[in-house]
Amino acid sequence: MPENLSPVELAKYVAAERASRMVEDGMKVGLGTGSTAAWLVKCLGERVRRENLRFTSVPTSTRTANLAREAGIRVVTLEEARWLDLTIDGADEFDPDFTLIKGGGGAHLQEKIVATASDRMVVITDASKRVERLGAFPLPLEVITFGWQVTKVLVEELLSGLGYRDASVTMRMNADAAFVTDEGNRILDLHLGEIHRPRELSMVLNQIPGVVENGLFIDICDTVVVGHQDGSVLVEDAVAPAARGEEPAQDTDDSDNIFRDTSL
Ligand code: 5RP
Description:
Bound molecules: ribulose-5-phosphate
Helix content: 25-40%
Number of strands: 16
Number of domains: 2
CATH class of the largest domain: Alpha Beta
C-alpha cells in the first residue's frame, strides 16, 4: 500500500485495490477515468508486474490510456475489443438503486459507451459518494460546440418545464478556457439540487439537439465497491427494488407520460 495517504485517498485506494482483484487472466476490461480509477490502473499495473496477469484494457479517456500504457497494461480500442467482460470506474454519486452521476472528470460519454458494452460494471468509490437522492453533484451534460449557447437555453427551458425552478446551468471551464472533452465537445454542468425522476430527466435531456450524452447511468452499474477512511471495504451488489420489498422507482412505470408530465 502507498504510504502517507490522506483518509480520502486511502478510501479510494482500498476500493480500487479490491476491485483490481476482480480482473482475471484473459479478460477484456474497461478502465474508468478519475482519481479512483487512477489507483485502479496502478494496482492492475502491479498485478501485471508481480503476477504476470495478462488482460486487455479499453480506457475511457486519453488520460487513462496514458496511465495504463505507463503501467505496462495492454491497451486496445473498443472497436478492437468489441465486447468487454468487466468495466471498473469511479462515480460522483450513487443512490440506493445504483443509479450514478458520472462525468466529474468530463469523460462520461466514453465511460457510458464502454460500461454499456460490458457484461458487468463495477463502481469504485469512497463512502462520501453514497446519497439517498442524486443531484447535489452537478449533472454533467456533454454538448457539441456548434450552437452550444442555443443548446444551453433549451436545457434551461426544459429544466424549468420539469419544475427545477432553482436550477442553473454553467459551462465547464479549464482555467480561463472552456473545458474540451476527448471528443472535442463541451460540458454543461446542471446544478439541480435534487433529481426526482432520473430516468425521465435522462431521456428528455438526450432529446435536445446538440446534446451528446448526460452523466446519469441508469441500470448500468452491477456492483459498488465502497472504500472507507479506516481502510475497510464493502462490496455491494445491485438489488432489484422488488427484492428490497419496494415498488419500482416511479418513473420506471411512467414512460408514456414523460413528455407531458412536467411537475416534480
Ligand atoms: C470521470 C468520472 C469519475 O469517475 C468521477 O468523476 C469520479 O472521480 P474520482 O474518482 O476522481 O472521484 O465520472 O468522468
